[in-house]
Amino acid sequence: MRILLRLYPAAWRARYEDEFLAVLEERPLSPFDALDIMLGALDARLRPRSLAIELAPRRNPSMSPRISGYAAIAGGAVALLMVAIGLLVPEPANGSLAVFLYPVVAIALLVALLGLSAAQGRRLPVLTWTAVIVPAAGLVISLLGELGSAALGDRAIVGELSGWHLWSIGIGGAIVGSILFAAATVIVGVLSRGAAITLLVGSLALGLIGIPVGMGMFNLTPNPAVFALLVAGGVAFCLGWIWLGFAAAFPARLSAAGSAG
Known about the structure:
The protein has 261 residues and is an all-alpha fold. The chain has two domains: 45 residues, no CATH class; 186 residues, no CATH class. 77% of the residues lie in helices and 2% in strands. A two-stranded antiparallel sheet has the order 1-2. Strand 1 and strand 2 form a beta hairpin. The longest helix is centred in the middle third of the chain and has 28 residues. The N and C termini lie far apart (46 Å).
């Protein structure tokens, strides 16, 4: 918390730091709270004459669920498009399209994770922080892998790892992070449990099948049933994120639909 508060101007800290810390220490700090504090620091530096402040991260920010919900819908939809391209577009064109689409998916889902973790981080802080840090690290590693592949081709970038290897490791981090996030969502129950279970099933399928395939442990070509499970897992992964996003962005519509049913 003190490291985050060092981002604020000295005049702000002299007036508010002790009081702000006292309020923050009343509850665990979630990833969304950390982001909120950083945005507040930016605002304090952009508007140095204004010392007005909320004395805690916003407890129920009206825009956070909506923005993170839109991000989850976008990330899931683009990921679903990647699945369709992988099935319908022949190689190597499908791989080239995936290289352009994956950063959109990764960034959108990272925004979704940060926003949707707001409530869960205060109940399961360790699990929620891990569910954000792991895919964030995967995002950075995978993007470095993409840049490395574009610049160096199949040559090694880190040790004996090529850009493709780094990209695969990053994808694995995103999948593992989704498993952790979905598990936390099922346990806490703040968001839609049905969506979280769908995401969990899809993430587990991708983790148990997709990661070994990416590591070259076995080939899908002679295993059509396993390939079908992988595709089903990918679709469930995408639909889980879309469902979670819709539940976060439009909770009133879901409640109305449930009441009508």
